[in-house]
Design a protein that fits this description.
By secondary structure, the chain is mainly α.
């Protein structure tokens, strides 16, 4: 059963409105830097260089091209 509107409004009342009260742990794999965290909470997005493997991106791109061709027929 999906959540009710009341449940949804209470689940995360202040999502992403305040920066986290934590500091990144140095050396932790995949951990964003303090600068990246600050940028995310200031601008609402962050760019993560090399987040996905280039081979995976090529596979995704190929599948998207197939989907576009099928859709455009």
């Amino acid at each position: 059963m999906p959540p009710t509107a009341e449940q949804k409004s209470k689940a995360h009342p202040g999502v992403f409105t305040l920066p986290p009260d934590v500091s990144p742990k140095p050396g932790k794999a995949g951990q964003m830097s303090q600068e990246q965290l600050d940028h995310f909470f200031r601008e609402g997005y962050v760019i993560l260089d090399d987040f996905l493997d280039k081979n995976l991106l090529e596979k995704i791109k190929a599948q998207l091209e197939v989907q576009v061709r099928q859709h455009c027929k």
